[in-house]
Amino acid sequence: MEGGEARQRRGCRRNNGDSLLILMATVLVTGANRGIGFEYCRQLQQRGDTVIAVCREPSRDLESLGVRIEAGVDLTDAEAIADLAQRLDGQPIDLLIHNAGILENNSLETLDLDSVRRQFEVNALGPLRLTQALLPLLHRGSKLALMTSRMGSIDDNSSGGSYGYRMSKVALSMAGKSLSIDLKPRGIAVAILHPGLVRTRMIGFNPQGISPEDSVRGLLARIDGLTLENSGSFWHANGELLPW
Ligand SMILES: NC(=O)c1ccc[n+]([C@@H]2O[C@H](COP(=O)([O-])OP(=O)(O)OC[C@H]3O[C@@H](n4cnc5c(N)ncnc54)[C@H](OP(=O)(O)O)[C@@H]3O)[C@@H](O)[C@H]2O)c1
Question: Would you state the pLDDT for residue 16?
Fold first, then answer.
């Protein structure tokens, strides 16, 4: 069994004189089969971290990475989450990346409250439910990363609409802020992150978006720079602090 000190140091990357001291971390990523979640898994594995890829259905790309895959986990299903916690069997988690999310279009004219509710379930309640279930696996030095969106910034909302997505991401950001306060005494830091506009299925692979590779490089830099002092901040992947 590893000592607390070793566990505490994992997940950190810091400059050790001339050489970069790399400490490996165990990272759990949701929505790992495609898009930004898959790219997180790819880059984390490439840098030597141990990845636990959580998804509903694995993709070929994910299977070919050779990371541990935990499939069959729908974040709206409390039983599936409890099963996942059981399968993890006490495995300490250094970094928990809540990445899975859905975007459905809701305009005022065509408002569908079931769609709004669905987005709340996946985007806001899913990460909260999973955090609670995996809390016993988090330790002093662990980090949480919540993939919210600039569309969940009230200050930045200049175009309206997208009721379910915007409202659910505001709720997720608020959960992140409360988690940063509640988990600080346990030594756990929380990052609230916007990935930029990223070319994934969520936005129809909009060519104006940046690549998942570039987005995740920025997101991992933010997560590496996350400390208990700056915990609870809302960052763009490019390092900009975003308005609430
Ligand atoms: N792309 C952007 O420009 C952008 C901008 C701002 C924020 N974001 C946020 O970044 C995150 C990743 O987005 P993305 O662009 O990579 O989207 P994506 O390509 O559509 O991928 C979404 C992921 O979420 C999973 N997911 C959806 N519903 C789920 C559920 N009920 N239970 C478990 N997993 C579920 C999907 O799994 P399935 O394959 O099983 O559906 C998929 O792995 C999301 O939280 C999104 O809101 C993205």
Answer: 42
| pLDDT exceeds cutoff 70 at 17 | no
Mean model confidence pLDDT for the chain: 92
Q: How confident is the model at residue 162 (pLDDT cuts 50, 70, 90)?
A: very high
Distance 15 CA to ligand 1 centre (A): 33
- Residue 53: enclosing H or E segment and its boundaries? strand 50-54
16's tokens: 């050790």
Candidates 3.10.310.10, 3.30.830.10, 3.40.50.150, 3.40.50.720; CATH matching 26-236: 3.40.50.720
Its pTM stands at 0.93
Mutation test residue for ligand 1: of 36, 98, 117, the one with most atoms within 8 Å of CB: 36
Reference 142, options 88, 187, 84, 182; nearest CA is 187
Neighbours of 202 (CB within 10 A): 18
